[in-house]
Design goal:
The structure holds 2 protein chains of 2 kinds. By secondary structure, chain A is an all-beta fold. Chain A contains no helices and 11 strands. The radius of gyration of chain A is 14 Å and the shape is globular. Classes of the chains: A mainly beta, B mainly beta. At the A-B interface, strand 4, strand 5, strand 9 and strand 10 of A face strand 4, strand 5, strand 9 and strand 10 of B.
């Protein structure tokens, strides 16, 4: 099966940098995605890593180490609106089931003024 | 706005009843995914359809069924409802069956009393 571990809560102040870690155990790992979800809202896609290394998109960056089964989401210059839940999700390579995602339990980020 | 629509937004029903949740994917997207999100289980993949055919199955109960119609909209049918089925049900879509990014609809909040 698949398992993903991420911290349940993280807090930080406005303007700070925060890193949300995700470790996974899965067979047929294909890639790691990150989604943001505000309270009661729909998850929205942030980033995707299939290869080792850092992907940067504005204030957000995502990192993957396939050998360590580990990734993280880095949020810089935190803003109040970044307060949300952040989910890591793995894609597995199993032929026709390539598209499905397995989600972690989510990390609740609270940004304080 | 992701372009994915879901109806209804809220649904309150009694145990033992049957309900149908509806999803219209983004224009041009062929894949539809259904997810269940509850407080204790996180985001759980239920099922994926691609261009009208079932593509992948997750933790979907036998009491639940889904289909994707020729116009690509999808319906999730939940029957013999139990209190534990109370959750947010999300539909997501992607252009093909294995894209990096899935676009989530606003969800249907089901409350079983």
């Amino acid at each position: 099966g698949q398992s993903l571990e991420q911290p349940s809560e993280v807090t930080a102040v406005e303007g700070a940098i925060v890193q949300i870690n995700c470790t996974y155990q899965t067979s047929g790992f294909y890639g790691l995605s990150w989604y943001q979800q505000h309270d009661g809202g729909a998850p929205t896609f942030l980033s995707y890593n299939a290869l080792d290394g850092l992907e940067e998109t504005g204030r957000f960056s995502s990192f993957l180490s396939r050998s360590d089964s580990y990734g993280y989401l880095l949020l810089q210059e935190l803003q109040m609106k970044d307060s949300a839940s952040y989910f890591c999700a793995v894609r597995v390579d199993r032929g026709s089931t390539l598209g499905r995602l397995y989600f972690g339990r989510g990390t609740q980020l609270t940004v304080w003024p | 706005d992701s372009g994915v629509t879901q109806t209804p937004k809220h649904l309150i029903t009694a145990t033992g009843q049957r309900v149908t949740l509806r999803c219209s994917p983004r224009s041009g997207d062929l894949s539809v995914y259904w997810y269940q999100q509850s407080l204790d289980q996180g985001l759980q993949f239920l099922i994926q359809y691609y261009n009208g055919e079932e593509r992948a199955k997750g933790n979907i109960l036998e009491r639940f069924s889904a289909q994707q119609f020729p116009d690509l909209h999808s319906e999730l049918n939940l029957s013999s409802l139990e209190l534990g089925d109370s959750a947010l049900y999300f539909c997501a879509s992607s252009e093909g069956g294995d894209e990096d990014e899935q676009y989530f609809g606003p969800g249907t909040r089901l409350t079983v009393t």
